[in-house]
């Protein structure tokens, strides 16, 4: 194996590659926002007494966590368009599939976080006369959010990794660019290595941040 | 409008292609079981490295685990398949390359799970066993290992399910698993809705089956306990997925 590593081909195309990387981060961030927003009502519906809310929520979580992301992507991008239901751009289809998949995981995280709030908190809030909504907004939710942040960051890392898949539906991300340039310049090794190193650097930073957050949380809340 | 939309659905070709889809399921099963088995061995090695008394080895284990956890499967596959192979002027076989990538990345997750399980057994168990005069080997085999297994099994099940789902990504390098087969016939018949919906349903069915099977396994490994297993689960038996408050394999 000859390791002649040509760095000029990377520096020549660095701005296109970085644009692609930015696109991956953007689509992952939008997907995460959708997941975090959808996950909350899902978690609340999953805790509900009424089966009318609980059963659909459980089904949703099961679907979101059981269907591979790549199938969701294909389904939203190709299948829905074929049936004339809706047709999305690659970016929107990507963000939506990440959001739907992530919502199942986020809902589980919120659910665990809610049940981690000691029941004394709820009783205390009731004793000082807070309404149910006030109890949720001022007492339960802020405490649950603290517990939910580190595992939530892990979901973001998962979605960031998932976002790398989106070149399969033609999102002009870093690998898409790398592929185009690699074909033109006959330098696949350089380009794929550069793309891989860059995207791994981003996920590593996010994963390390999640790890730090997790360790901080496990130290326990200051009393 | 919607009525005409759904009247056009035609699942006939999906049924006609059932033997192709089945062979895709077979490939998926083979790839996921083999990579899971290799990942368990890899995870034990990595966890052992981290527990090592030699500082360089323990650090190497730590760095390896962190780096592997940051790598997306698709990125690794593309790099192996289109970058490295082009440079070396050779071609990878899709299935071994896919198994290698899946096993490598998941061994890091399993290593963390094994380490956490190893440390979760209360130290009093060891002290009591040695105080009773049990030899260290007996303590490890009869006291420690069963408890570690019982603690780590649920998280291992999550990794297995993730591997099964992630085999779909191997379609990108041409492994003829379920998604690749669905893609092929979706394009051939121009029926993406039918084939992708069928594929999604098959994945859900398999994941549900595996989850239930795995729970049986967990129960078997905790059958010596008089109390309920330590694994906490609540409602959500539907699909077998909703009930586990797991965040371990979220990344």
UniProtKB/TrEMBL annotation, chain A:
Keyword Transport in record: yes
Record PROSITE patterns: ABC_TM1
This protein's GO CC annotations: ATP-binding cassette (ABC) transporter complex
Protein's membrane topology: Multi-pass membrane protein
Subcellular location: Cell membrane
Keywords for this protein: Amino-acid transport, Cell membrane, Membrane, Transmembrane, Transmembrane helix, Transport
GO molecular function, one term: transmembrane transporter activity
GO annotation, biological process: amino acid transport
Residue span, ABC transmembrane type-1 domain: 21-210
Transmembrane stretches, start-end: 20-45, 57-78, 84-105, 155-176, 191-213
Keyword Repressor attributed: no
NCBIfam families linked: HEQRo_perm_3TM (TIGR01726)
Family classification: Belongs to the binding-protein-dependent transport system permease family.
Name of protein: His/Glu/Gln/Arg/opine family amino acid ABC transporter permease subunit
Natural source organism: Conexibacter arvalis
Higher taxonomy: Bacteria, Bacillati, Actinomycetota, Thermoleophilia, Solirubrobacterales
UniProtKB/TrEMBL annotation, chain B:
Gene Ontology biological process terms from the UniProt entry: amino acid transport
Ranges that cross the membrane: 21-47, 59-82, 195-214
GO cellular component: ATP-binding cassette (ABC) transporter complex
Membrane topology type: Multi-pass membrane protein
Gene3D superfamilies registered for this protein in UniProt: MetI-like (1.10.3720.10)
Domain ABC transmembrane type-1 residues, every copy: 25-214
Main localisation: membrane
Family: Belongs to the binding-protein-dependent transport system permease family.
Name of the featured protein: His/Glu/Gln/Arg/opine family amino acid ABC transporter permease subunit
Organism: Conexibacter arvalis
Lineage: Bacteria, Bacillati, Actinomycetota, Thermoleophilia, Solirubrobacterales
């Amino acid at each position: 194996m000859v390791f002649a590593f040509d760095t000029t081909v990377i520096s020549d195309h660095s701005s296109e590659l970085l644009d692609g990387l930015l696109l991956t981060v953007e689509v992952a961030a939008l997907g995460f926002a959708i997941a975090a927003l959808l996950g909350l009502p899902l978690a609340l519906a999953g805790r509900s007494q009424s089966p009318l809310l609980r059963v659909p929520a459980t089904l949703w979580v099961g679907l979101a966590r059981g269907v591979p992301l790549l199938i969701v992507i294909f389904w939203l991008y190709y299948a829905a368009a074929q049936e004339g239901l809706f047709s999305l751009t690659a970016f929107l289809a990507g963000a939506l599939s990440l959001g739907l998949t992530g919502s199942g995981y986020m809902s589980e995280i919120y659910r665990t976080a809610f049940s981690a709030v000691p029941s004394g908190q709820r009783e205390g809030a009731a004793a000082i006369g807070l309404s149910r909504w006030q109890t949720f907004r001022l007492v339960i939710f802020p405490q649950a959010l603290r517990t939910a942040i580190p595992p939530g960051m892990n979901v973001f890392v998962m979605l960031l990794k998932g976002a790398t898949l989106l070149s399969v539906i033609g999102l002009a991300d870093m690998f898409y660019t790398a592929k185009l340039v690699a074909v033109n310049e006959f330098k696949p090794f350089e380009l794929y290595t550069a793309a891989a190193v860059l995207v791994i650097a981003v996920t590593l930073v996010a994963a390390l941040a999640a790890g730090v957050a997790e360790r901080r949380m496990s130290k326990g809340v200051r009393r | 409008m919607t009525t005409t939309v759904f009247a056009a659905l035609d699942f006939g070709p999906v049924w006609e292609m059932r033997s192709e889809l089945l062979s895709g399921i077979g490939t998926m099963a083979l790839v996921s079981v083999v990579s899971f088995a290799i990942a368990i061995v890899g995870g034990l090695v990595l966890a052992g490295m981290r527990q090592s008394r030699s500082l360089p080895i323990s650090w190497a284990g730590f760095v390896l685990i962190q780096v592997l956890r940051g790598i997306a499967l698709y990125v690794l596959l593309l790099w192996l398949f289109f970058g490295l192979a082009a440079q070396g002027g050779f071609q990878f076989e899709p299935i071994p390359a896919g198994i290698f990538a899946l096993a490598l990345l998941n061994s890091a997750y399993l290593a963390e799970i094994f380490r956490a399980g190893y440390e979760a057994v209360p130290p009093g168990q060891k002290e009591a066993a040695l105080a009773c005069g049990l030899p260290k080997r007996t303590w490890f085999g009869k006291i420690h290992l069963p408890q570690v297994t019982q603690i780590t099994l649920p998280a291992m099940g999550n990794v297995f399910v993730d591997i099964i789902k992630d085999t779909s990504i191997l379609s990108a390098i041409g492994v003829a698993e379920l998604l690749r087969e669905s893609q092929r016939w979706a394009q051939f018949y121009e029926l993406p809705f039918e084939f992708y919906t069928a594929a999604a349903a098959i994945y859900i069915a398999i994941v549900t089956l595996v989850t239930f099977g795995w729970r049986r396994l967990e129960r078997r490994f905790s059958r010596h306990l008089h109390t309920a297993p330590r694994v906490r689960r609540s409602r959500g038996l539907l699909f077998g997925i909703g009930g586990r408050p797991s965040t371990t394999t979220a990344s």
